[in-house]
């Protein structure tokens, strides 16, 4: 369920926003695939909240060296972006690329599920039934 929620609440909207905004603004896409290193139910999973923990580097003392380096990379990318500098190549329709952060490395890759560690089945399902319908399924589940 966590994977579905991340796909419908984070992955699908980034694709939609990027398609719309890239015609008007510079868009820089990233895919954060670092795994949660801490004991507990979500150990070994990547999540939206984990990218924030890496970005703010509050837990660097508890990370493995590669993960600590990734946190530093992420903060550097973010600081470049907020200071008006391109952190990496722009995402544009026809030239969709994303910075993939995984395993302590940050690499620019084509923004397709097979390259970025996303679930291709989710994209196929979204194209078949519609991402808005999938979002409504989540909304109904979460509210009831």
Structure notes:
The chain has 144 residues and is mostly helical. It has one domain (2-143). Helices cover 51% and strands 11% of the residues. The protein is built from six helices and three strands; from the N terminus they run H-E-H-H-E-E-H-H-H. Strand 2 and strand 3 form a beta hairpin. Helix 5 (120-129) packs across helix 6. The chain starts with a helix and ends with a helix.
Summarize this structure briefly.
This protein is mostly helical and 144 residues long. The chain is built from 6 helices and 3 strands. It has a 3-stranded mixed sheet with strand order 1-2-3.
Descriptive tags:
single chain; mainly alpha; 51% helix; three-stranded mixed sheet; globular
Span from first to last CA?
Answer: 15 Å
Q: Determine the mean pLDDT.
A: 90
Number of strands: 3
Which structural class is indicated by helix and strand composition? mainly alpha
Q: Give the DSSP E fraction (strand runs of 2 or more residues).
A: 5-15%
Number of helices: 6
Output the strand order for the largest sheet.
1-2-3
Low-confidence stretches: none
Largest sheet: 3 strands, mixed
Share of helical residues? 40-55%
Shape: globular
Can you write the helix and strand succession as a string? Answer: HEHHEEHHH
Rg (CA only): 16 Å
In total, how many domains does the architecture comprise?
Answer: 1
């Amino acid at each position: 369920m966590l994977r579905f929620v991340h796909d419908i609440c984070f992955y699908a909207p980034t694709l939609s926003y990027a398609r719309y905004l890239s015609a008007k603004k510079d868009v820089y896409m990233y895919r954060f695939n670092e795994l949660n290193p801490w004991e507990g139910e979500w150990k070994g999973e990547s999540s939206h909240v984990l990218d924030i923990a890496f970005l703010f580097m509050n837990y660097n003392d508890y990370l493995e060296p590669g993960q600590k380096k990734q946190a530093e990379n992420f903060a550097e990318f973010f600081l470049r972006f907020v200071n008006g500098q391109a952190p990496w190549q722009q995402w544009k329709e026809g030239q969709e690329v994303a910075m993939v952060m995984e395993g302590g490395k940050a690499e620019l890759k084509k923004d397709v599920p097979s390259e970025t560690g996303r679930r291709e089945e989710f994209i196929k399902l979204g194209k078949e039934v519609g991402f808005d319908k999938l979002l409504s399924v989540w909304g109904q589940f979460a509210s009831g």
